[in-house]
Amino acid sequence: KELYWLGRDPVYVQVIDANANVDPCCPEQVVVHICDPHGEDDSEWIVLDETSSNSPVFFTNAGMQLLPVWDALGVGTVAGDGGFQLQLDNWKLEAFNEDDVYARYNDVYYTQAAMNGLGDINTGTAFPPTIRQARVQNDVSFDLMSIGDTQVYDGSSVQMYFLDRQGNRVSGYVNSDCVFVEVIDPDQDEDQYRRERIDGYWDGGQNLPFGPYASTDFGCNMSKPGDHPVNNPLLGNVNIFNDEPTDGEGWAKVYVLNPRSGRWAAVDLLETGVATGDFVSVICIDLTSVYSECTPTLDVLPGDTIVAVYQDPSNHSDSAWISIKVGIGGGATPPSQQSTTMFVDADGNEVTNYTDADLVYVKVIDPSHAGAALLAGAVEIGGVSYDLTPIAGATDEFITDGLDLDLTAGDTITATYTDPTDPADTSSDTITIIASALNVERFYAGPSPFSDTTTFGYVGSGIASDMSVEVRDASGHVVWSQELANVTGIVWDGTDKNGVPLANGGYMYFITATDGTNTFTGSGWVFIDR
Fold first, then answer.
1. 170 shares a domain with 319
2. 162 and 183 co-located in one domain
3. What is the pLDDT of the chain when averaged over all its residues?
4. How many domains does the chain have?
5. Which of 385, 413, 434 finishes a domain?
6. What are phi and psi of 235, to 5 degrees?
7. Which of 372, 433, 465, 530 is the most exposed place for a label (fewest CB within 10 A)?
């Protein structure tokens, strides 16, 4: 195995050395040195057991834990700050994503005291272990493994987003909004059996130049909470206010910042589910002061730029910075991102009317919410709000469920969409309701006489799925005919089938209209008078 992932993969080592099988009657042991030559490097000498009493194969029967040097919860060693948990000689390998780790085997005898002192978390006893004598001179072997890594910013794209209150990705805020942040970093899914958290203060103040310093006094009169034997290891530092009472812990690693005002707030990121690698903040950071001074706020003015910052606890080179604008005058959506609303059928195709028996569907196209999973309550019809969900295969198109609105023939309904993150971006559509069953009381041709055009239609209700008209002269010859679908009338301009104007006078017409179930026929006279 060459690639390992922090938190997921235990490390096993195997050595095959017939020379180390000295006593064929008893299982023996060998020692392997494992080292991560990073700036903050871990080094462990581990013991491998012979797989049987007379075998050249030695193996680590218990897998060694592979952990990050910096714990994402900000909970490290007892004596350390923040999440720093590197500890030598503890038979746990602490490493960074993207590191290369080597294993070295030297065919030698170690002293018994050195063997007894391995893994005791005391580098003064056997670190490194004392060699008693060489078993085979210059018999040294190596192997190399790599730690897996994913980058939030890979040099061309960034997997970090601003969100609205509903969890939709946004391209702008208005000053009444809250700031939420999403980070997609699969290598931070270090435990695939539980949801995880990345603490905004995982650093504990050791790498000071990265984060802003808590120099703003909110007047909260906060005091440092006492240590709790359970809560501290489980939750880490849960303080999100940027007047951290302890100076050394006032440097955040995940935070949002308004550079103009200098106000900022740390954000904790929670995994959206088990083994998703998708992390979101869940605490509202107000853009403007809404409650009290003790509530995190960025103190924005229209036109400000908000910055969000993330640094991977397990790879300090993996950093991402994103920015977003606070709109001026309500934060209007750019024209290319504005919405369009229309009435459609169940497949998302636009329709011109509904029958009184139809379900109503509303489709909205809004590029500013491309990729959103839900636009809650964004469409209003008759004072009632409805949710929109994405249409498969179209990231910026959304549709309602089929709505039973108790329609009546002759009514009109209007659907209005309001962008959840930009109330100034609205769009609407209006549609007419027609009768679902065709009912013809009588046919007509009007006006008659006519000089330009006349319409063959009917008095009644419903729409004809098929309607045909045949016009004959006084001798009974067909001079013009037409058949159309889904209409209530057919227009004739007084020409023959070749488009030549007919002479003034009377002409007979014969009409058939059907909705597939009900069929009606009629006839009459129409007069041309030019």
1. yes
2. yes
3. 87
4. 4
5. 434
6. -105, -20
7. 530
Asked whether the beta carbons of 270 and 73 are under 8 A apart, the reply is no
**164 φψ region: left (φ > 0), alpha (ψ -120 to 50), beta (else):** beta
Q: Which amino acid is at 125?
A: T
Tokens of 382: 């008759």
Alpha carbon distance 177, 172 (integer Å): 10
Distance CA 455, CA 299 (A): 66
Work out the angle at residue 353's Cα, subtended by the Cα atoms of residues 361 and 433, and round it to the nearest 5 degrees. 95
The SS3 of residue 248 is helix
Look at residue 107 in the predicted model and tell me its pLDDT. 96
Looking at residue 252, what is its pLDDT? 78
Domain that holds residue 483: 439-528
Q: Given 147, 171, 200, which residue is the final one in a domain?
A: 147
Q: From the CB of residue 117, how many other CB atoms can be counted at a distance below 10 Å?
A: 20
Higher pLDDT, 271 or 235: 271
Measured CA to CA, the distance from residue 338 to residue 456 in angstroms comes to 42
Q: Rounded to a whole number, what is the distance in angstroms from the first to the last CA of the chain?
A: 93
Distant-in-sequence, close-in-space partners of 231: CB < 8 Å, separation ≥ 6: none
User: What are the structure tokens assigned to 433, written together?
Assistant: 């309701």
Query: Taking the mean position of all CA atoms in its chain, how far away is CA 8?
Result: 24
For 114, phi and psi rounded to 5 degrees?
-65, -40
Angle value at C-alpha 394, between 392 and 400, nearest 5 degrees = 65
pLDDT at 40 over 90: no
Stretch 265-290: mean pLDDT, rounded?
89
